[in-house]
Every structure is written in structure tokens, then in C-alpha cells.
């Protein structure tokens, strides 16, 4: 049986370390995950991709949910990159973002939307 101290410990640890904050839509069923922190290329738009590729996942990411996580756009991009690694991606294409804002009256988190892709051929440019 879980006592109050055990439950409190679980709540405190969850709030300190949080979870990944990325929503993921898989576009294929044959995805092979890559290790965490896998190397990824980042493209600002799909026209900059320099080789044939296929779409793997659509990712909507936010920064971490704890006070100790990076609350900036960089934090959101890092979470998007981690999600892309779970899709087996070679690169991400940023399709949209919102830097978020903070004021006395309102606070919104940064958010980034990306497409995770896998290269299917050599560079063409």
C-alpha cells in the first residue's frame, strides 16, 4: 500500500523531471527508432532539403513542463528532435512555430511544428 510520503515523492519527482512534451503523428507503420540524441539535420523549409526523402512523422513540440527545463524555442526544438529520433528520422523540417510570450496578464509556451523525414537517396545539390 502506498503511504502519503511515497505518493508525495512520486508527485515531486514527476514535477521536477517531467515528460517529453511532443505530440507525434506517425505517417508510416514501418518506423525503426534511433537512439536518443541521434544526429539530425534541420531544415527551415522543405525546398532546402538536398536529397530525396520520405515523410515519417508530424511533430508538435513544446518546451519541457518543469521549472528546470529550457522554456525557450530551443527547448521546443530539442523535444521535437527527440521525438524525431523515435521515428527513425534523418532530419526535421520546421513547418511552423510560435515563440510564445510572457507578460503580467498572459503567458504562452513556445511551440514548434516539424515534419520528421528519412533520406532515401544521395544529395542532389
Notes on the structure:
- There is one protein chain.
- This protein is α+β, with helices and mostly antiparallel strands.
- The chain has one domain (25-119): 2-Layer Sandwich (Translation Initiation Factor IF3).
- 23% of the residues lie in helices and 30% in strands.
- The strands form two sheets. It has a five-stranded mixed β-sheet. A two-stranded antiparallel ribbon has the order 5-6.
- The longest helix is centred in the middle third of the chain and has 15 residues, at 73-87.
- Mean pLDDT is 78; it is low at 1-19.
Q: What fraction, in percent, of the residue positions are helical?
A: 10-25%
Please tell me the total number of domains: 1
Low-confidence stretches are 1-19
Cα-atom radius of gyration:
17 Å
CATH topology: Translation Initiation Factor IF3
**Total count of strands:** 7
Query: Proportion of β residues?
Result: 25-35%
Which architecture does the CATH hierarchy give at level 2? 2-Layer Sandwich
How many DSSP H or I helices? 2
CATH class: Alpha Beta
How is the largest sheet built, in terms of strand order? 1-3-7-4-2
Order of helices and strands: HEEEHEEEE
Distance between the termini: 62 Å
Average residue pLDDT:
78
Salient structural properties:
125 residues, Translation Initiation Factor IF3, two-stranded antiparallel ribbon, globular, disordered N terminus
Fold topology:
Blueprint: H1 4-17, E1 22-26, E2 41-43, E3 53-61, H2 73-87, E4 91-98, E5 101-102, E6 107-108, E7 111-119
Parallel strand pairs: 2-4
Antiparallel strand pairs: 1-3, 3-7, 4-7, 5-6
How is this structure best summarized?
With 125 residues, the protein is α+β, with helices and mostly antiparallel strands. The chain has helices at 4-17, 73-87; strands at residues 22-26, 41-43, 53-61, 91-98, 101-102, 107-108, 111-119.
Amino acid at each position: 500500500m502506498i503511504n502519503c510520503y511515497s505518493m508525495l515523492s512520486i508527485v515531486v519527482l514527476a514535477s521536477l523531471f517531467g515528460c517529453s512534451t511532443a505530440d507525434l503523428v506517425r505517417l508510416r507503420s514501418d518506423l525503426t527508432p534511433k537512439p536518443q540524441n541521434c544526429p539530425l539535420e534541420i531544415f527551415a523549409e522543405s525546398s532546402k532539403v538536398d536529397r530525396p526523402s520520405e515523410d515519417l512523422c508530424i511533430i508538435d513540440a513544446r518546451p519541457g513542463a518543469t521549472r528546470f527545463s529550457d522554456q525557450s524555442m530551443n527547448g521546443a526544438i530539442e523535444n521535437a528532435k527527440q521525438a524525431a529520433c523515435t521515428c527513425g528520422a534523418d532530419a526535421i523540417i520546421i513547418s511552423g512555430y510560435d515563440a510564445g510570450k510572457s507578460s503580467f496578464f498572459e503567458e504562452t509556451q513556445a511551440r514548434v511544428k516539424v515534419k520528421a523525414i528519412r533520406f532515401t537517396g544521395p544529395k542532389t545539390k
